[in-house]
Amino acid sequence: MKIGRLTILVPFLLFLHAVHGQKKPVSLVSPTFKGTLVLPAPLKNPLFNSITETLGQLDGVLQFPLTKGFGIGAGANMTWFGVKERALAPDLTSGDIRRATFFGKVQYEEYTSERTFFELSAKMGSSTYVFDCPKCNDESRRTVFHWGVGVGYYIHATDNLAFGLTLGYERDNTRFSSDDLGLPNFPGRQEKVEDRNFQNFLIGLGFSTRLRKAEDGPGGW
User: Hey, which CATH number is domain 3-210, 2.60.120.10, 2.40.160.20, 1.10.8.50, 2.60.120.580?
Assistant: First the structure.
């Protein structure tokens, strides 16, 4: 996913806002499922950023309202990174890194108009890293503490379905090292271990669907 694609979605969201802006307000009180296609960008992790390339992240969360816009949820995401072909040549020319994250979430939602709303959220859970390459070993696999914060802005296409843009930050309590790839060191570098924990800046395109019978269609969702 390229950053330039965001410029395609923004006019689409503005169009939805113009078309549906005069409709009645949408109620917040219902369970919600959110799905997001995310582009993680490693933040202040120069070793990891120079050796890997981001393939993408898929995120899904089920949320339940509590009171006055606040709610809780639970979800998971899967993130993929690939080892750059020439970054570690000739010691390593292929491989990938997979991360599975499971988390609990607290969120606050508020409508800014009849058809638009924003969300502020925080999450905590655990991430499991799997390093898959010719020299990788099972000792590199580990599960660590995960936390993150985020914000999203959504526009309703129907009473139950909304599309939006999300931004976020996440951090895992572990650091990237040459041992993760089965190497004694990184070729051409003195550093063997990243100075900071894994952390990413997140840009996402997502949808939010309320799990209830729709009022704007003939018996549909």
Answer: 2.40.160.20
